[in-house]
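Look over both lines:
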Amino acid sequence: MSASVPNPKCAVVWFRKDLRLEDHPALLAALSDGLEIIPIFIWDPKASDIWRPGEASRWWLHQSLLHLRQSINRLGGSILFLIGKPQEILPRICRDHGASALFYGRCYEPSSLELESSIETIFSASGIRCQSFNSNLLQEPWEVSNQSGGPYRVFTPYWRSARASVYTPPLAYSPSSLSFARLAPTSLESLNLLPENPWHNKLTPLWDVSKSGAKVLMKRLHSDIAPAYHSRRDFPADDGTSRLAPYLAWGNISPRQICSAALGLDSQNHQLVENKFLAQIGWREFSYHLLHYFPHIPDAPLREKYSRLPWRDDCASFNAWQQGKTGYPFVDAGMRQLWATGWMHNRVRMVVASFLIKHLLLPWRDGARWFWDTLVDADLANNTQGWQWTAGCGADAAPYFRIFNPTRQGEKFDAKGCYIRKWVPELKQLPNSAIHCPWNAPETVLQAAGVQLGINYPKPIVNHFEARNRALKALESIS
């Protein structure tokens, strides 16, 4: 790319996890100052962070950048896709274009905070204004504190203090009013974001990553999803959740846009929507609150004693869990849904996580890493909090001794077996009475359904009651 004529009336806007043009404070800052925008995205393949985006996330990121490029092109501009260290690239781009400012949205992962600190140091001596903004949370993680001025460790009092933030409206400006610079084109494909493993190809027909795809889902919030969320959210065969998490993870939409869409213009159902659906946004906020104050938790339990749990080393069982071949239909359905779609229903996430940790006594970090690689909505704060909640080792966690019975979970939340039949088709001919525990079904029932345990569907890899006792003994060993 050749250097442009210096333009002191322009600003570099560094896109990160805010891949949208609406409700974007860095873009609004440039607009308010009358500055032409030089949009840029940087990919650093040599970054040392062990929690770099996994395969499913990179697929989503590629699609997001593709649509962001199209949106900017339609407004007469172009976005730069560059490879390398942001600390080196950002000062160079600003110098080459004579930019008067660098604007960007903050990220809150430990490695991102280190990066931002170094960039601020570099720009403080450059004479170029460097300003960061909150672009993907309702509130900064440090803006909410308990009566002692410290972090909350329990969700309910945290959300009681922070919940009013759901009424903050999105920023009021039109993307058409933004002025983008037209620059020499750079190649998105040169970033090599798409994984070598072609498994991600099946995601393309399942997800519309564009702005219009997100807005189709958001239109359902006020009239359909949010008001009935309390009664539908736990049933994976019912399309009762928003499926907006991946759009939120990469900032295709903002949490303020989601809250505004869910609440709508009338106040009739505000309390119900706020208490149930928007509380899920609250859990996301709480997760970032925890990650900010306890940056070690992606790799170690918040409750230190749980680091002494006597985890097992059993690759065969872990592989069976990954592949949805545990012999427990509800667990297997969830793991197969994940592999097929890059997403899993939240109720089922809790069940499969509990099964790995407590039935198989395998480390929660291994499960978190698998989710990180296969979920299109992988988010370090959320992923960490969710796994530590299930493992009983995090803030406001479920007690370790609370062990989900995967059969009863299926019977309760998939009573007719519709979810299981979709994702474990070898069991689809079983009657409702047998589909949750085929190992207890009479041989005649199995034969009539074409099920051969141990041949075309596995026998349970662990006995529930034996596994439960083993998990409780493990807990006793660290108490």
User: Anything to note?
Assistant: Confidence is low (pLDDT under 50) at residues 1-5.
